[in-house]
Structures are given as structure tokens and as C-alpha cells.
Amino acid sequence: VRLEAKLRDALQKREGLFVFYQPIVAIDTGAVIAREALVRWYHPQRGWVSPGEFVPVAEQSGLIDELGDFVLNAACREAVGWADGARVAVNVSASQFGEGTLVSAVQRALAETGLPPDRLEVEVTETALLGDEQDVMAELRSLRAFGVRVALDDFGTGYSSLAHLRAFPFDKIKIDGTFVRDAVERPDCAAVVQAVATLGRRLGVSTVAEGVETQAHLDRVREEGCSEVQGYLFSRPLPNEHDAPIVEELN
Ligand code: G
Ligand code: G
Ligand code: MN
Ligand code: NA
């Protein structure tokens, strides 16, 4: 409850909340295809609070729509200025679905910032599909109908189901970093990465290997046929130019 009150306060004052970005790179050319927006929070007494800690609090307390709006608007606004024309990928929580508010929030953010819809990617985990699957699919479909791309995040963890891939035309599958990192030493994990990469090719969907930290990881996921890569080997999530000096100060 105390963290919830602090987060509510931060959202109200727009204080200490930042969006960091991490590049997603084409494996064959090295070009930056997209940047994933990852929210960060600095609290004056508590220091940096991990999103692993405060995103669930936001989800449980009804603050997630407001937090989601903050990230979405910042991400679209900043992506408009990217000279390389890369897409911006925004994570969306299961709890942002269901009331139809997500679709209007996305439309509003695109309209207000002027970001072309095809430069926005929404990342959803399969957990989001478990609730009212038909309703969630309908919301994803309307996003896609106006040109926003939809990625399936953390594939391989949780309730991965081939039925989801058949039921909905995802534009991208993101293979969870745990598989990627283990693939170097464990043939079974390499087999999973290869199977998903093959599936992606057959479905005409790009596959992103997440959590690529070393050259060995990169060599392995290239071998297994992934089309894009993301991870510390390329860059950690970093603040935008404008926030960088502020973040430096806080660190
Ligand atoms: O960046 P990091 O590894 O610390 O993120 C931890 C978790 O928080 C990840 O699962 C990530 O998807 C989630 N996360 C980061 N930013 C956002 C956001 O803006 N919205 C939502 N819903 N989740 C986010
Ligand atoms: O759950 P999601 O995939 O949206 O979140 C991505 C998370 O992975 C973020 O918290 C991000 O900071 C983290 N991340 C990004 N690259 C790497 C990496 O190379 N290694 C590890 N361990 N985590 C990473
Ligand atoms: Mn993600
Ligand atoms: Na992920």
C-alpha cells in the first residue's frame, strides 16, 4: 500500500518516472529495427525501484492504465524524433485489456504525437490472452486494423500455446531470454529456439531472440535461424538524450 501511494504520487506529479529504450537489431544487417520502451522509476527515498516490483503494484491497484498512458505517450513522442525511423515497442499488461480503453489510448497517443501507426509495436504476453481471450483478441485485432504491430512477448515461458499463434496474426514472436542463454550449452534449449524460429519463418513472422548477452549467444541464435536480436551485447536499456543528464545525476 505504501509503494502504491508513492507510485500514485509519482504519476500525479510526473516525477521520477522515465522511459528507457533498448535496441532490437536485425541479425543479418545489424540495423536497429525497433527500440523497446522500458519504464523506470526513481523515488527520492527508495532510489531506483525495479519495474518487476512496481508494475505488478500498478496492475493490482488500477494505476496501470495511467502508467501505461505515460509510457505510451512518451514512447510515441520520442520515436517521432528518431532519425533512423526505427519502430518503438511498448509493453502492455494483461490488466490494460478488457475495457476497450487500450485501443482509444493508443489512437490518442498516435494522433497527439503524429507517430505513424506502423512505427508502433505493442508487446503482449500470453498471460494477457488467458483472461477473456476473445475480447483481448478483438482489441488486438482493432489495433492491427489501423496498422499497429503486435508482438507476442516472453514466448516459451508461462502458457505458450500454438493455439494462440493460430488464432491471432502476431507480427513478431519474442523468444524469452532464458531459452536463448541456455541454448549455448543445452541442446534441448537450442532445439526450442530453432523450432520457434522455423515456426516464425513458416508463419511469415519475425522472431526476436531476447537476452543476447554474449557473442556465443548471438552465434547460436543466428545458427538456429532467429531474425532479430535484443540484449546487453548490443545495449542495455538507456535513457533518451533529454533524460540522460538527469539520470546520470540520480545514479
Ligand atoms: O526492464 P526490466 O527487465 O527491468 O523489466 C522488468 C519487467 O517489467 C519486464 O517483464 C517488462 O516487460 C516489464 N515492463 C517494463 N516496462 C513496462 C511497461 O511500460 N509496461 C508494462 N506493462 N510492463 C513493463
Ligand atoms: O519481459 P520483457 O521481455 O518485456 O522485458 C525485457 C527485460 O529483459 C527487461 O527487464 C530488460 O531490462 C531485460 N533485458 C534486456 N536485455 C537483457 C539481457 O541481455 N540479459 C538480461 N538478463 N536481461 C535483459
Ligand atoms: Mn517486452
Ligand atoms: Na520478453
Small molecules held by this entry: guanosine-5'-monophosphate, manganese (II) ion, sodium ion
Structural class category: alpha/beta
- Largest sheet at a glance? 8 strands, mixed, barrel
State the total count of DSSP E strands: 10
Strand percentage:
15-25%
Return the CATH topology.
Answer: TIM Barrel
Helix-strand pattern: HEEEHHEHEHHEHEHHEHEEH
- How many separate domains make up the residues? 1
Instruction: Name the average pLDDT.
Output: 95
Percent helix among the residues?
40-55%
- What distance lies between the first and last C-alpha atoms, to the nearest angstrom? 26 Å
CATH architecture: Alpha-Beta Barrel
CATH class identity: Alpha Beta
Principal-axis shape equals globular
Identify low-pLDDT runs.
Answer: none
Total number of helices: 11
Structure in words:
- The chain has a single domain, classed as TIM Barrel (Alpha-Beta Barrel).
- It contains eleven helices and ten strands.
- It has helices spanning 2-13, 51-61, 64-80, 101-113, 127-130, 133-145, 162-167, 177-182, 187-203, 215-224, 244-250, and strands at 17-26, 32-43, 47-49, 87-91, 120-125, 149-155, 172-175, 206-209, 228-229, 238-239.
- Helix 3 runs parallel beside helix 4 (101-113).
- The chain is globular, with a radius of gyration of 18 Å.
- The mean pLDDT is 95.
- The structure holds guanosine-5'-monophosphate (2 copies), manganese (II) ion (MN) and sodium ion (NA).
- The site of one guanosine-5'-monophosphate has 14 residues, from strand 6.
- It comes from Acetobacter garciniae.
- Residues 1-251 form the EAL domain.
